[in-house]
Amino acid sequence: MRTKVILSIIGVLLLLLIGWWVQWFYANHEQKTREIKTDVSPLAKRNPLLAADLFLQRIGRQSESVSGRDFLLNPPEEKGLLVVNRIGGSLPAERQEALLDWVRRGSHLIFSPPSGWTEEAGQNNSLLDFLGVEVYQQNGPDNEEEASESADISEIDQQVKLSPIVFEMPAFDGEVTVSFTDRLALFDSLGHADWQVESDEGAHLLQFEMGRGIITVLGDQDFFSNERIGEHDHALFLARLAADSPRTWLLYSSDMPSLLQLLWRYATELVVSLLLLLLMLVWFLTQRSGPIRGLAHLQRRNLMEHLAAVGHYIWRTDQAEKTFGRSQVALEQRWVGRHPLLNGMPQDERCQWIAGHVGLTPEAVEWALYGSIQGEHEFIKVSAIQQKLIAQLYNQQGLSAQGER
Fold first, then answer.
1. For 39, which DSSP code?
2. What is the pLDDT of residues 241-282, one digit of tens each?
3. How far apart are CA 95 and CA 100, in angstroms?
4. What are residue 137's DSSP bridge partners?
5. CATH architecture designation of domain 42-141+153-264
6. How much is the CA Rg of the chain, to the nearest whole Å?
């Protein structure tokens, strides 16, 4: 009973301590909201239509940002809205016809002139020619030299003026305000446009009905970019364009993807398999198979084996007699040079003297210095005797050098 009372007192004290700490924390701390600006994400840097894509998804539209020319070369089977940031070069004739058929079945295509369009360069697009749309440069660098030196179209866009234009949209009650740039102006040369938005600088929007679908040509799409989608009625304008389409694709780059991107997109399993195979190959090459090979201890070859091999080779090449004669002369000169007293001795006495110092018979010494050979076996045998005479000379030279020391 006493233990329960003590535990209860301790529990009450802990609760009081926790309550006091909570009261002290809220009394000395204040909750505030702080905004921290961060850098633009890599995805937003790569995709200028990312904010437009997120906006369409937030209002309940099915939207997707894509890159590459796949949707231009092979339009999707289902109907929808395809917004092409800058359409790029002309499509092959059969691919352009397939894209137009997709529009005729009830889809909506929105695009702007190719990136880096200049009137002097004459860059155009076959789809613009088909619609009869001519593009004129209204504002840009001051002269042709500056235009040719401008490598990035964004540098030119920074120099142009923004022109907020108020206009009405079909099937929409009210007006919208969109800030177009006045760098490019459009002209309907065939007079087939069903709706257009114009200003003093020229047309900024031309819309053509084609079958059950629509093609809209914009002078620029900067108002759909991440930086400007929130200005004026840009977001509303995009929402109204996508109102009648069950799905929207925002093609933010129509450049041809690299080979690596194509491989990863269409052969992901193959690329992953090759990488795994490469890793396994590297791992396999680092492994050893079998026992570790020990270092071989080289043993000196037997002198007679060496002499037999050399003698066999010399005899086969018919150099035995000549080689044997030269070795006799050289060996005699070295003994005489080493021991001058041999110079005045007859041949038999000289052989006896050398034999006594070498430990050979006088006949063996005479055969080595003055004899002849009759076959390969004799050549090998007498060569061994000459080697002993040479070795004795080296031994005597080494003893003499030690004695001088």
1. P
2. 988 889 999 988 765 556 676 677 678 888 889 899 999 988
3. 9
4. 184
5. 3-Layer(aba) Sandwich (3.40)
6. 50
